[in-house]
Amino acid sequence: MRVVIVEDEKPAVENIIACLKNIDEPVKVIQILSSVSNSIKWFNENSSSDLIFMDIQLSDGLSFNIFKSCKIDCPVIFITA
Q: Per the confidence metrics, is the pTM higher than 0.90?
């Protein structure tokens, strides 16, 4: 499974990665994105992943704004503190 993490706090990213290591299926984190603007750029230039973990509040705005500029074709799990 190819996973993208959209999160701007390093401890949260590390926590997600640690949790993913406990899954029986092989998981590869293909990208870690930390802002709305970087996420829009990446999703518009790259093929989709199998799953996205996405924080709601990022340093430059709400992650919901990503969906206004990108076509996301995989499941998204929203995460927040």
A: yes
**To the nearest 10°, the Cα dihedral for 66, 35, 59, 19?**
100
First-to-final CA distance of the chain:
25
66 HSE (CA, 13 A, CB side): 28
Give the distance from CA 33 to its chain's centroid: 6
Distance of alpha carbon 46 from alpha carbon 73, whole angstroms: 12
The pLDDT confidence band at residue 24, using thresholds 50, 70 and 90, is confident
> How far, in Å, CA of 22 to CA of 59, rounded?
29
